[in-house]
């Protein structure tokens, strides 16, 4: 595992230092005095892991995903034997992200938030990095700061990404689609579709061993598979299922049903942890105080509908 430093700027009044002085510490922090203020540039050593598609094996992919799960699960609590990701309030800035290097000759680096396993940014060719439209100040000030940062015209929500490309159940996954996605992200053009590929083959696989199982089979067979009703609904319902597992009073029965679909897109109602585990093989839970991008998208749509109705009636 590599440690990839990311700079972060902090300020402290220090009028006694000479304005032209410059010191370096053993930790790699540098100090600049300008206008009688001390500017301290610290470097967050975010953990970095890599996966090389060329020559990839089922075992190398398993180890890669296992390492990602281990990093995001550090210091977490468990419910029903599953790690619950730490909420934002319990994660220091220096521990907030993990950098994932995907290699196929070109190298793309994904920045993943340990709070929710979201891909929040990536870097590619020509010293450029890309952030979603809803990127936070925290992300912009701590990720890829030595690159030319560019904001995409859309957010990271699945519904939005699909409108920019294709539905997930129309996009094959596997080693070849992943290699193609790396090249497209590296070039930085028409990135919505390759983002859907890497998000599912990294973040969603970390969340669900069911999807990991399918990807590992595709690597062994050198073929592809296309997610259908079950996988897509699992991805959409990760937040609600995480909440129900955590709210269960006996560790088995849910307070509210989790609504999935089978691969024929027929309703699959799940009322207990055993059934959920059998269908999804969920590996990591979102803290119930955190919210998924699906939840936020639903709020956005509801607000838009409310505003539209209000505009019509007033």
UniProtKB/TrEMBL annotation:
<keyword id="KW-0611">Plant defense</keyword>
<protein>
    <recommendedName>
        <fullName>rRNA N-glycosylase</fullName>
        <ecNumber>3.2.2.22</ecNumber>
    </recommendedName>
</protein>
<dbReference type="InterPro" id="IPR016138">
    <property type="entry name" value="Ribosome_inactivat_prot_sub1"/>
</dbReference>
<dbReference type="Pfam" id="PF00161">
    <property type="entry name" value="RIP"/>
</dbReference>
<dbReference type="InterPro" id="IPR017988">
    <property type="entry name" value="Ribosome_inactivat_prot_CS"/>
</dbReference>
<dbReference type="InterPro" id="IPR016139">
    <property type="entry name" value="Ribosome_inactivat_prot_sub2"/>
</dbReference>
<dbReference type="GO" id="GO:0006952">
    <property type="term" value="P:defense response"/>
</dbReference>
<dbReference type="GO" id="GO:0090729">
    <property type="term" value="F:toxin activity"/>
</dbReference>
<keyword id="KW-0800">Toxin</keyword>
<dbReference type="GO" id="GO:0017148">
    <property type="term" value="P:negative regulation of translation"/>
</dbReference>
<dbReference type="InterPro" id="IPR036041">
    <property type="entry name" value="Ribosome-inact_prot_sf"/>
</dbReference>
<keyword id="KW-0652">Protein synthesis inhibitor</keyword>
<dbReference type="InterPro" id="IPR001574">
    <property type="entry name" value="Ribosome_inactivat_prot"/>
</dbReference>
<keyword id="KW-0378">Hydrolase</keyword>
<dbReference type="GO" id="GO:0030598">
    <property type="term" value="F:rRNA N-glycosylase activity"/>
</dbReference>
<dbReference type="InterPro" id="IPR017989">
    <property type="entry name" value="Ribosome_inactivat_1/2"/>
</dbReference>
<comment type="similarity">
    <text>Belongs to the ribosome-inactivating protein family.</text>
</comment>
